[in-house]
Amino acid sequence: xxxxxxxxxxxxxxxxxxxxxxxxxxxxxxxxxxxxxxxxxxxxxxxxxxxxxxxxxxxxxxxxxxxxxxxxxxxxxxxxxxxxxxxxxxxxxxxxxxxxxxxxxxxxxxxxxxxxxxxxxxxxxxxxxxxxxxxxxxxxxxxxxxxxxxxxxxxxxxxxxxxxxxxxxxxxxxxxxxxxxxxxxxxxxxxxxxxxxxxxxxxxxxxxxxxxxxxxxxxxxxxxxxxxxxxxxxxxxxxxxxxxxxxxxxxxxxxxxxxxxxxxxxxxxxxxxxxxxxxxxxxxxxxxxxxxxxxxxxxxxxxxxxxxxxxxxxxxxxxxxxxxxxxxxxxxxxxxxxxxxxxxxxxxxxxxxxxxxxxxxxxxxxxxxxxxxxxxxxxxxxxxxxxxxxxxxxxxxxxxxxxxxxxxxxxxxxxxxxxxxxxxxxxxxxxxxxxxxxxxxxxxxxxxxxxxxxxxxxxxxxxxxxxxxxxxxxxxxxxxxxxxxxxxxx
Amino acid sequence: xxxxxxxxxxxxxxxxxxxxxxxxxxxxxxxxxxxxxxxxxxxxxxxxxxxxxxxxxxxxxxxxxxxxxxxxxxxxxxxxxxxxxxxxxxxxxxxxxxxxxxxxxxxxxxxxxxxxxxxxxxxxxxxxxxxxxxxxxxxxxxxxxxxxxxxxxxxxxxxxxxxxxxxxxxxxxxxxxxxxxxxxxxxxxxxxxxxxxxxx
Lengths: 490, 200
Prior knowledge:
The complex is a heterodimer. By secondary structure, chain A is an alpha/beta fold. Chain A has two domains: 281 residues, Aconitase, domain 3; 178 residues, Aconitase, domain 3, CATH 3.30.499.10. In chain A, strands 5-4-3-6-7 form a five-stranded parallel sheet, sandwiched between helices. In chain A, helix 6 runs parallel beside helix 8. The C terminus of chain A is likely disordered. By secondary structure, chain B is α/β, with parallel strands linked by helices. Chain B is 30% helix and 17% strand. Chain B has a seven-stranded mixed sheet. The longest helix of chain B is centred in the middle third of the chain and has 13 residues. Chain B starts with 5 loop residues before the first strand and ends in a 15-residue tail after the last helix. The chains are: A alpha/beta, B alpha/beta. Chains A and B meet through helix 2, helix 3, helix 5, helix 10 and helix 11 of A and helix 3, helix 6 and helix 7 of B. Chain B: It catalyses: (2R,3S)-3-isopropylmalate = (2S)-2-isopropylmalate. Chain B: Its EC number is 4.2.1.33. Chain B: Heterodimer of LeuC and LeuD. Chain B: Belongs to the LeuD family. LeuD type 1 subfamily.
């Protein structure tokens, strides 16, 4: 029978088929290849194991990192916030007790759990990956079935290395065409969410397909899969291809030699069969896409950057109308205001959505040689300590610092403000993160979700801006370098 | 887990769509390492507003939350379910639940009952016209009763069975431990292991 990518990965992990058929079917028991753990959603799960006298079944398929609570300054000092410090110490104690590998603050592999897994080569095509964090969908960029789970399920995976799950429906997101300069993966996913809504993906695994997706780098695919959850989907996936293999080859935990060949042979089978059908298909035109930005308090409330703040009257549905009214009030926005007239106080470049090396490079390319709007504070938080080191080796830290941005240590930071990196009440932020919920980045904070290049352009102008709004940067002063002439080269 | 068959309590109309888990419990409360004691955290930002529904009698003593569509979106934090339960809620009614929230509810014995939006609107009106009206949620017959309104609700059969029986998931799965062991023996050797650690 013809299958979609999601169905193939599902079927390859069924430990035990649920009894019964159709609506009465019990869930399947699925094996979990990789369990990622962090300090916030794990303490109660470890405690559950302890109380029941259970072991953690597969420490060799489990890895932990500290990310949500960690400070991004003074990381060599004890964590000032006592409850944060206790939670992190609890993770350290639990990992030691149950034999789990942990990358702690200060370690070169520490960072946001969804940056660390792929960077170590632990995320691979065709795997099942779970974590007590909804943005686990990120790992679907490799053709893995990757899902966020709650703490009870975290405990279940710890005890059994499986999850009981009912099969999902499948949705194809077809993105055809070529992105224009300044338009990125972030704009694709924000446009998808605006189109299908925050509940549009509920009960579905999304598969992103089409020429525009195939042309994307792994970092960009991760950005898209990351935000699948903001459309309500359980997971998002991209079929693996040469781009995937090139990214993976040589990473610490990637297979080697004959194992690599065997793996690639298997990975090559991980694509939706031509005659397979999706339950739903959605099309998006990449050619006409513009930089996208949110105006409201859920990720579906977005428009093209060249548009204006919508009016509640634009929405037919009563609930959507009420939600828009409430959002405008919270955001302190008037309907009809051009998005590009909106002034921000803070620019946040970071989060599991957009904190990888490519994101930092893209933003650095925009600001290099330009000046920051003096009123704007810009925070740059690399996704992992490794990304930070890589960026420093390329001199990106200097670009950000010269621009006047704050260059921080790795973690979730201002995406959710569990550490000291928070917005003040009423403060407005252009953020490369994933959620513009009320109070998400700090009580009373106002969030506009944007791509890294829009974030960078906004930091220059002080108002929501796309790179095409910028004056040309002054020519950099470079030392003359002798280059061989064409005749020499020949 | 406690068995859930039927519950009757004061209904709370929450006329709002897209109630995300950051609203149900802001991240600042997630630093705790316990599984209980989150009642103060529930809707903590909204509860600062005196006009918020849970600041009004008799709704403050409510145990059945009647919410707009797309309830529980966003973060996977199970703390959202713990906070609702700790406050005293036994059931949430909505026309659409986020998948992870629905799953978390089922694990913790909080009934997430999917009710058609038309019926939600009727129940909202009833609760607003006669504050303090009791809502009965009957899991056996899958019906909600509020005043003269009788509405069916949906819940998947497996979760319903587990709630009715009060069954523990891990215990159920471990009955099939030999299947897990057999599956493990078939896994390809190229699949990665986190241990021993390899570093860049």
